[in-house]
Specification:
about 240 residues, 10 helices, mainly alpha
Length: about 240
């Protein structure tokens, strides 16, 4: 998954809500896509199998809550593992700087020699970077190991993923829940397809801010993938209903 960086606000200005949470937009987008696609697939498969609306609601909400929790836990554990791995390597670099300073200085020297520094300027760079242990370790983490600290909360990553999965994934079920209390005239599944299509398009549009691709490409890609998943589920449900009835 991508890790977008929140652009800093103007000096002296408190970051807005959007600026503070923009770095979690990727989790919201992919949680929303997964929630809408999987829930709509459950609805489409149930409709294809000719199941009653009450059964569709049961299956849909079971999928929504369980799959959303599973996905969020996976996102949390992945982010936490990444953060723990970074800390492990950073602690190792601190130990090496403390116990093998000359070897580590030689590594810094070689890194910046390859960048084009040489002679007195190279030695000045090495002396400056190794004068502060924290700066020294940061250089080794970035230049030697190619690792950078995310700074993002694993808990927030999991929470945003779950909330997005629930919020967007609820859309394919919303009309069936409304119809349970107030009957809706017309094709309930047809209306659901239109409503879910709007959700797909909106999430696809948001995805373009994460992937930095064409707006129309992001929208059409999400719509097509969602339609394919729903179509497969519908025809599988219809086939099994005819086979087992």
């Amino acid at each position: 998954m991508l890790d977008p960086v929140t652009p800093p606000g103007p000096p002296g200005k408190t970051p807005s809500f959007a600026e503070r949470h923009q770095e979690y937009l990727g989790e919201f987008v992919y949680g929303g896509i997964d929630g809408s696609v999987t829930t709509f697939a459950v609805v489409a498969g149930s409709v294809g199998a000719g199941l009653d609306s009450s059964v569709i609601l049961i299956l849909g909400f079971a999928n929504l809550l369980a799959d959303g929790f599973s996905m969020s836990v996976g996102a949390y554990l992945s982010a936490k593992s990444e953060a723990d791995n970074y800390k492990k390597h950073k602690n190792a670099e601190y130990r090496e700087v403390a116990h093998k300073p000359e070897e580590e200085r030689a590594e810094v020297r070689e890194i910046y020699r390859q960048k084009g520094f040489e002679g007195a300027l190279l030695e000045q760079v090495v002396d400056t970077l190794t004068a502060d242990p924290d700066r020294w370790v940061d250089v080794m983490m970035k230049e030697e190991l190619g690792m950078m600290e995310s700074g993002r909360s694993p808990f927030r990553i999991g929470a945003v993923t779950y909330l997005a999965f629930i919020a967007v994934g609820f859309i394919p079920l919303s009309l069936y829940l409304f119809d349970y209390f107030v009957p809706v005239s017309g094709s309930l599944f047809g209306y659901t397809c239109l409503l879910t299509g709007l959700a797909f398009g909106t999430v696809g549009w948001l995805k373009t801010y994460v992937t930095e691709t064409s707006t129309w490409k992001g929208i059409l890609e999400t719509l097509i993938l969602g339609a394919i998943a729903a179509g497969v589920a519908y025809f599988v449900g219809d086939f099994l209903e005819q086979l087992l009835s």
